[in-house]
Amino acid sequence: MTTISEAPAVAPNAGARKLSYVKAFNEGLAQAMREDENVFVAGEDVAGYGGVFRMFDNLLDEFGPRRMIDTPISEAALVGLGVGAAARGLRPVVDLMFMDFIGVCLDQIVNQAAKMKYMFGGALSVPLTITTASGAGLGAAAQHSQSLEAWLAHVPGLKVVMPCDAYTAKGLTVSAIRDDNPVVVMLNKVLLGSVGEVPEEIYGIPLGQAHTARQGSDVTVIALGRMVGEALAAADELAAEGVEIEVIDPRTVQPLDTETMFASVRRTNRVLVVHEAVTFGGLGAEIAAQIQDEVFDYLDAPVLRIGAPFSPVPFSPVLEKAYVPDRARIAQGCRRLLERS
Amino acid sequence: MAQRASTASKKTTQVSTQVVKDLHERMVRIRLFETEAGKLMEAGKLPGFLHLYVGQEAVAAGVMAALRDDDQITSTHRGHGHAVAKGVGFRAMYAELYGRATGACLGRGGSMHINDLSRGMLGANGIVGAGVPIAVGAAFAARYKGEDSVAVSFFGDGATNIGAWHEGANMAAILGLPVIFVCENNGYAEFTPQSGHMLLTDVADRAAAYGMPSVIVDGMDAVAVHRAATEAVARARAGAGPMMIEAKTYRFFDHQGVKGLRHPYRSDEEVAEWKSRDPIDLIEARAVADGTATRAELDDVWRRTREEIADAIAYAEASPLPDPADLLLNVYSG
């Protein structure tokens, strides 16, 4: 069984091949299926149609109906199928299409998949991967746009990854499939068509290791998922003003690599956490609390959080744009932090 | 096509002497495990909840005698009987009820989560209906790997009102998986009678909605259950897809605990009527009458089992408690 420690560390090179986020996911999944006969995919319209976001394009042609299974619209049975199959030694990839649908099958995720190994005294593992599309920005409204990572990260036994670009979409997906724990891969809908450098060979990105996406000395911005790109854009804007911000992408929100964050805070002394999810009870609160617990003495200003207001995601594009944090709000937040010391 | 096999016949032909003895022994093992666990609970020795299976033994015994070790089962919060009948050891089970480090779940699961993968016991489950889709997944894995094992999902009448039950039944049917759905209809969902939670008389009618054949059996008659299960298992093993068995049965103790039988939600007369058809009494009377076994042989099963249980309880009580320093053990793999 492949473990994360055996996974090759491959990073994009200058001039490397470029691929879209969704194709990078698809390539990583196909390579993981070639690597391990026990990997199969089940979900609604994943086989014949290739997935509503084209995530599973061409996989039926290569792997056939034994390994690409179209299921009824039955999320509880779908995740349960994955739990039972994983308990019997397979490595299921189960697709939930839109993250918002997890409410329908939360028992199977939270009470079954996440707890089975623990409650069974370690007698088995549940190497289940759940893929889903999260996030606002497509005018999909309140039941097709949420970022619910805080729900899942709160549950012991689950892992949650949030790829911010094509390179991480492939590497985190491969690691999720190779991992012996239930892992939820939160793909971001707005990023599906975004293009980045992606190595052709199979590679895994270690789960639980943050990535410093940009180095800087003045403010640490910890950004989840799509907010990494917004933070990098804000960093360009601030650099023109002579402010250097450091951007940290946790990549995995459970387990969360707080050590990389603490080290950054010791250098910059100011922190902003940004996520698409509602601010109240979001991961920003957890990250802020842990920073206060461990590196309070290094802070020159209180930790600032930026997230969505306490509202369902709106439909009208003008409202949706105001709802989701962006580069302007991140830049503004950094300026506020610098003014407070 | 959806069909209902006729209510299983009461004939006991074609069931060997050995099978009857096997059914009897499995039932005695459940009965004694349960009644002793009940005494321990009343004595204040066991933490947590205890949902006793006494009265329903014929179902677990009848089904499990039709299975192999590599066949998988998912169980309910009333799961001790299934575990015992599937061959899970008394020592690991009692140690788990005591919350000891030597328990089936290392003291992390308790009564409602006992498992034994070596026996195909994929766990009792604290969530009503949740084991149904998991059994479907186990059956999927068997077919994926080219094995001919089957999966059995046990559930109560109340669980068939849960969405996961319906989703699992439909999923098994549409994928044609080797799953046997066994409804232990004891007439009550916790404290609510069947008439108060569904308008059906026979839960088996629900199978037709998913194109699944079903059969209704006397859940106090282990031989009848066994015959139905043998047919359903053979059918599933041969690739003919899922089937449902509804066993009409009864729990002699309360929903939880052992406080007695005088409960306002069911009458003394009703309880007495069902107890007059005690599944172990029935099989013993028949075995003695038709010469399958002598009274002495049957008594010997009780005696041997009592000894084994006394040993297991002593083992559990002498076992170490889990070390709080290991609190985070097995949250994750690796």
Structural features, described:
The complex is a heterodimer of chains A (341) and B (334). Chain A has 341 residues and is α/β, with parallel strands linked by helices. Chain A has twelve helices and 14 strands. Chain A has helices at 21-35, 59-67, 75-87, 106-113, 116-119, 149-153, 166-178, 227-239, 258-268, 283-295, 317-323, 327-339; strands at residues 18-20, 39-43, 68-70, 91-98, 129-134, 159-161, 183-188, 195-197, 211-214, 219-223, 245-249, 252-254, 271-278, 304-308. In chain A, helix 3 (75-87) runs parallel beside helix 4 and helix 9 packs across helix 10 (283-295). The longest helix of chain A is centred in the N-terminal third of the chain and has 15 residues, at 21-35. Chain A is globular. Mean pLDDT of chain A is 95; it is low at 1-8. Chain B is 42% helix and 9% strand. Chain B has eleven helices and seven strands. In chain B, helix 1 (17-42) crosses helix 2 (57-64), helix 2 (57-64) runs parallel beside helix 8 and helix 5 runs parallel beside helix 6 (163-175). Residues 9-13 of chain B have low confidence and may be disordered. The chains are: A alpha/beta (341), B alpha/beta (334).
- Coarse structural class of chain B: alpha/beta
Estimate what percentage of residues of chain A fall within beta strands: 15-25%
Strand order, largest beta sheet of chain A? 3-2-4-5-7-6-12
Mean pLDDT across all residues of chain A, rounded? 95
In percent terms, what proportion of residues of chain B is strand? Answer: 5-15%
The tally of beta strands of chain A, per DSSP, is: 14
Query: Please, how many helices of chain A?
Result: 12
The residue ranges of chain B in which pLDDT falls below 50 over 5 or more consecutive positions are: 9-13
Q: Kindly name the structural category of chain A.
A: alpha/beta
Euclidean distance between termini CA atoms of chain B: 46 Å
Shape of chain A: globular
List the uncertain runs of chain A.
1-8
Largest sheet of chain B: 5 strands, parallel
Average the pLDDT over all residues of chain B and give the rounded result.
Answer: 94
